[in-house]
Amino acid sequence: MISAEDLIALVRNYNPKTNADRLARAYEFGEKMHEGQFRHSGEPYFSHPVAVAAILTEQRLDDATIITALLHDTIEDTKANYGQVAEMFGDEVAMLVDGVTKLTNLQLSSRETKQAENFRKLFMAMSKDLRVILVKLADRLHNMRTIKAMRPEKQVTKARETMDIYAPLAGRMGMQWMREELEDLAFRVLNPEGRQSIIRRFITLQRETGDVIHRITGDMRRELEKAGIEAEVFGRAKKPYSIWRKMQEKDQGFSRLSDIYGFRIITHSEEDCYRTLGAIHQRWRAVPGRFKDYISQPKSNGYRSIHTTVSGRDGKRVEVQIRTRQMHDVAETGVAAHWSYRDGVRSHNPFAVDPAKWIAGLTEQFDNEEDHEDFLEAVKLEMYSDQVFCFTPKGDVVKLPRGATPIDFAYAIHTRIGHACVGAKVDGIRVPLWTRLKNGQSVDIITADGQTPQVTWLEIAVTGKARTSIRRALREVDRERFIKLGQELARAAFEHVGRKATDKALDTAARNLRLKNREELLARLGSAELTAHDVIEAIYPELAKDDGEAVPMRRAVIGLEPGQSFERATCCQPLPGERIVGITYRGKGVVVHAIDCERLSDYENQPERWVDLHWHSGRHQAVYGATLDMTIGNDAGVLGRICTLIGEKKANISNLEFVDRKPDFYRLLIDVELRDIEQLHSLMLSLEAESDVAAVERYRIKAETVAAAG
């Protein structure tokens, strides 16, 4: 355990004017309060608060935060109380300690409605003083570093909570180093085999190629010297979890993954950052689409840096970050830079954001949320997403989370623009509303009088603001229609489990789901904010687990008019479990499309033909066709093994067509009959794991192909 003298010395390193006596008194008080208490590892309990304080000294934080770290468990776990702490160390410290205590008692990993309520409390605590979260994050970091002393099941719970909540929160606050360490520590618990596999591959790679980092760092320094630029160059291998995530996202093995090394160049001025970029690009080939300029377009947490990826030695890609020293300080400590010290004085970093403004900007759109679930969803979307920067036709910048669509862009400008949106142009070209926006694109929203939000927009929108605005508008404009559709969904779901959707049953379900009344429940069911399974589970949990008889195909789709027939679109082959929409055809009934089908862009200007549809929530018959596009090795017995595996997954092969034959591989289209989208995913995962399967994906006919065929 670090002694009081050593801890004070750590603070003095960056703040010689620290109140050493006050720190010593806090250390002594904490040690006394925790006397006789021990951790799972057998160490004195007070070693934990001291370690948390030491972590915060690495971020060069003020005395009040360090003292809070030393005392953060006293009010909760000892006989000390708020008044005692306030009397000895002041109201500021007492309020911070009390805030950390309240956060510790929140069950953020709960799967119930309580999680949403507690997230709101978390943000209320953050808005009062962000240092509460800084202490809590350091507390979690030390607990994760010492997690081996906990019971295995407790380790998994804490690791999952860390991965889902605390690591993304640290990243959003700009403390990337802490996010990476928290993720890696959680990864060590949740997937030890995967982590060890990556470490073993790293060792093998180093044995084969030598010290790549040292060589590339030397090359970069020489190029900067030639250009007359003074700068520091650092290199490192990326963390195992970061590499694992890239492997999952890109669906690539370790050997095919290129950018596993990262390099950082710290310059003296902003001008030198751009000169450095020029020198790097002149020496190495830049990788298209991998350049981001966060200096001219900083992130909301103050982060500034230039990111580029280049092809280094042996064609290996390396990521390079270029920034000044002040930018680096903010990049390392994020929002915490507001309280940090450098060379004995409170840091006045021009790039550090005001924490109060940051948290206000993050939460202002949620102040009027009607319920906790909306708040939880919106906050998670906003807090845990990377950003893209797009431009209005006038050149104004709009910041959006990655994956955002023109719908999100429209609502980011103004709710009125969002409601009236009928289309969009990206870089001058008309695009569907579900198009994912990319950095640097110019977006022009097309509006029309009389347009109102569509229920399908909920599946397209990504931002909390857009989804909340759409929901509110739909509730007001289409409430009666949604209640009617909700009644039909509830009736079908209850009949499927042998019950009736009586007013009393629906009232009970609404009460258990914490909704105002059954009309609110039905409206949410009809607008796809609730599923029929949620309603059944609220009052008949034992029946919700029992699928009962399979839903016949004639009753599979809900939302059709009496006597109206339907057929599945051949272009996208929608499966039960996917979000769907219907397009009406005269004399043909309704054709059901998946919500992301490219063909839907043909009907964008014909909203009167769109029908809100849902799949029945029960278990479906295995009669729905889907096509797999597979590439397999041309070897004896391979096709037989693939067909056997498909049969083992309870899927029936209805057709098989070879589209390409080569000496070493075959490409073929296999039609299979399935129950739902979940069975398709399970089947594809099993096929991907087969060593003789080079590639497998769901085959869908492109829009232009359909048009040509029609």
TrEMBL record:
Top-level division of the source organism's lineage: Bacteria
Residue ranges of domain TGS in the record: 382-447
Domain HD: from-to ranges: 45-144
EC number(s) given by UniProt: 2.7.6.5
InterPro entries with a match to the protein in the record: ACT-like_dom_sf, ACT_dom, Beta-grasp_dom_sf, HD/PDEase_dom, HD_domain, NT_sf, RelA/Spo_fam, RelA/SpoT_AH_RIS
Domain ACT: residue ranges: 627-701
UniProt xrefs under Pfam families: ACT_4 (PF13291), HD_4 (PF13328), RelA_AH_RIS (PF19296), RelA_SpoT (PF04607), TGS (PF02824)
Catalytic activity entry: GTP + ATP = guanosine 3'-diphosphate 5'-triphosphate + AMP
Family the UniProt entry places it in: Belongs to the relA/spoT family.
Function per UniProt: In eubacteria ppGpp (guanosine 3'-diphosphate 5'-diphosphate) is a mediator of the stringent response that coordinates a variety of cellular activities in response to changes in nutritional abundance.
The protein, known as: GTP pyrophosphokinase rsh
Species of provenance: Ruegeria sediminis
